[in-house]
């Protein structure tokens, strides 16, 4: 039995000028998988993630999301992006809007859902992350960890089919990392498909269904957390792990 492919990446290449960052990456992400991408700084992890929702244009290759070719110029990328939630290192909440407004803007404006429905769903998700009582607060009144939990909720309010995370805890004070990782763990337990670029090896070990090591333009090694962390085969991976574990 094999789960349905949600994202199929074929021979993805990306260069910036003469620098080739991704040199022909092929991978297949199934519904319900939690894929953690690890690798050295500058290896192209963010570029890979940004290509997946076309924040970066691939130089060549194919990316199929739910069977639709994202690289095809005819594809309506805006409607595709609504089904792909993205959470960045910086939370990027709208500072002049309260939390509830931040959460309901996309569903109401882009998805034409009613205010009642959008607010009810936002409140339901806020309850789940323990921030319902902050619905009327403004972003700057919240801690970094709270803002990042809100940023995750904001993405979820669009009811995406996949969530992309780019080092969501890297900008946080250490004591706030856990609360954000816990929200992500809950999501994984609910079988949300997730692609997570992270330096949190503990999270990857505990939550990932698959870990992929990106370096030198390729996924040099991939496997279960037990395989990858317990018995790394690639020399670059061994040396990377010796520095981060
Ligand atoms: P990582 O997320 O693994 O740290 P990035 O994907 O951010 O790596 O960057 C990979 C390489 O691509 C780096 O050398 C970076 O300088 C380069 N790069 C990333 N984005 C751009 C851009 N928009 N223009 C030029 N070079 C870029
Ligand atoms: Mg990055």
UniProtKB/TrEMBL annotation:
Membrane topology: Peripheral membrane protein
SMART domains per UniProt: AAA
Localization per Swiss-Prot or TrEMBL: Cell membrane
Keywords in alphabetical order: Amino-acid transport, ATP-binding, Cell membrane, Membrane, Nucleotide-binding, Transport
GO molecular function, one term: ATP binding
Cellular compartments per GO CC: plasma membrane
Family: Belongs to the ABC transporter superfamily.
Protein name per the record: ABC transporter domain-containing protein
Organism per entry: Stomatobaculum longum
């Amino acid at each position: 039995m094999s789960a349905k492919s949600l994202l199929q990446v074929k021979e993805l290449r990306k260069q910036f000028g003469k620098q080739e960052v991704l040199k022909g990456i092929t991978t297949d992400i199934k519904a319900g998988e939690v894929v953690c991408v690890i690798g050295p700084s500058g290896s192209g992890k963010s570029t890979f993630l940004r290509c997946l929702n076309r924040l970066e244009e691939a130089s060549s290759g194919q990316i199929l999301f739910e069977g639709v070719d994202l690289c095809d110029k005819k594809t309506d990328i805006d409607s595709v992006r609504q089904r792909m939630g993205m959470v960045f290192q910086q939370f990027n909440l709208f500072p002049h809007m309260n939390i509830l407004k931040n959460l309901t803007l996309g569903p109401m404006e882009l998805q034409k859902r009613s205010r009642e429905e959008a607010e009810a769903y936002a409140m339901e998700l806020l309850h789940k992350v323990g921030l319902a009582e902050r619905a009327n607060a403004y972003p700057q009144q919240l801690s970094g960890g709270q803002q990042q939990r809100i940023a995750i909720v904001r993405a979820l309010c669009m009811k995406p089919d996949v969530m992309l995370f780019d080092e969501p805890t890297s900008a946080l004070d250490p004591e706030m990392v856990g609360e954000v990782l816990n929200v992500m763990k809950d999501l994984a337990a609910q079988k949300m498909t997730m692609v997570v670029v992270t330096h949190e090896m503990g999270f990857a070990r505990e939550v990932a269904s698959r870990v992929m090591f990106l370096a030198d333009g390729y996924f040099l090694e991939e496997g279960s957390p037990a395989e990858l962390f317990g018995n790394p085969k690639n020399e670059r991976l061994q040396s990377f792990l010796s520095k981060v574990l």
